[in-house]
Sequence to fold (345 residues):
Amino acid sequence: MNREFGIQHPVFDIMKNSAKLNTTAKKWITQHCGRYALFDEPMALHTTFRVGGPAEVYIEPPTLDNLKTILSWLIQNNLPYWVIGTGSNLLVKDNGVQGVVISLKRCYQCSIELLKRKKYAILNVASGVRLQTLCQFAIKHGLRGLNFALGIPGTVGGGIMMNAGANGKSMGGVLESITVHFPREGRIGKAPVQIQKMKIPKSQLKTDYRHFSVFNVQCSTRPVIIESSLRLHYEKPSRLKKEAMEILKIRRLNQPIKSLSAGCFFKNPTGAHKNAVGTAGKLIDLAGLKGKRIGDALVSHRHANFIINTHTASASDILALKNLIQESVFKRFGVTLEPEVEIIG
Ligand SMILES: Cc1cc2nc3c(=O)[nH]c(=O)nc-3n(C[C@H](O)[C@H](O)[C@H](O)COP(=O)(O)OP(=O)(O)OC[C@H]3O[C@@H](n4cnc5c(N)ncnc54)[C@H](O)[C@@H]3O)c2cc1C
Fold:
């Protein structure tokens, strides 16, 4: 099958069509993942919103080999799985997630390789590396191109999948290639499913505002990004550091970074609405919703596009507030705000 995969891909269609985990499946997971697998694990512990019901199984594979073994077995058995980073762009519903959630945040979390060329440098980065670790590495080694990502939480894999960005720049702007794990076609149902490693060049990657996809790849499930190559340019570390301090200062002033959230909840309007109406935050503010609260979910006073969990909000509180925002903004401006945060469960 020749198709495009990306963040818009309906992951949960895969999950809906799959079998539930039985005792044999849980036994296999315990044997192969040991302490790295947690059963009925509250996703509230693995998302920055700190809300969300339990995942049937939550696994943090310590190595790529372990990840490969798990993926191969899950696909072989047609079991539902879903790969995440640090859950900083996720809202998991209160009833939780059926199937296996796999976080790559432990997998090679320190692996960054620097290759110096004459005019530019290439960084090969494992997906589990934190975006902030990568930004600091680039500054220390005098490499320009990643300062826009300062202050964005999460892993590099999650950042690529979301095409994370700020101030008009995003991960897509520095991407050279990604390396993915995916099952070899035609093997599902026969033992064993082979997990292939494949490097996909920039020419097959499509990035847009909070959108990432790959085309011309033979694949029936959503591939897992395990590594990426980024192209950066040389710059004086002192200049980068100075710029970084300014960027972080502006973030601290304009965003409720110490509160529990998943960052901006809605995408900014695009297309015909883009220039006419302004950002999602501006529309929410003009609709008079700053400070609006449902349960412990609150529209931030500092930045209207942030919904924050002030204490013990449930996912239902946050979803109710999201609906209220969408209705109010539509009524007032005729604009439908689309969530940037992924809603799961
Ligand atoms: C305070 C705050 C500020 C923020 N500011 C910004 C901002 O300025 N700009 C911005 O763009 N975002 C921002 N965010 C949102 C979020 O941090 C980013 O979207 C981030 O890139 C998500 O990374 P993650 O590792 O947490 O991914 P997750 O939230 O865990 O996952 C996001 C998506 O990526 C997929 N995914 C993750 N890893 C992989 C992988 N290895 N292979 C395949 N799929 C994968 C998941 O399935 C999911 O679909 C902010 C969030 C917070 C809490």
User: Anything to note?
Assistant: The first helix runs from residue 11 to 16. The longest strand covers residues 224-234. Residues 7, 48, 82-90, 104, 127, 152-155, 157-159, 161-162, 164-166, 224-225, 257, 261-263, 342 surround flavin-adenine dinucleotide (CB under 6 Å).
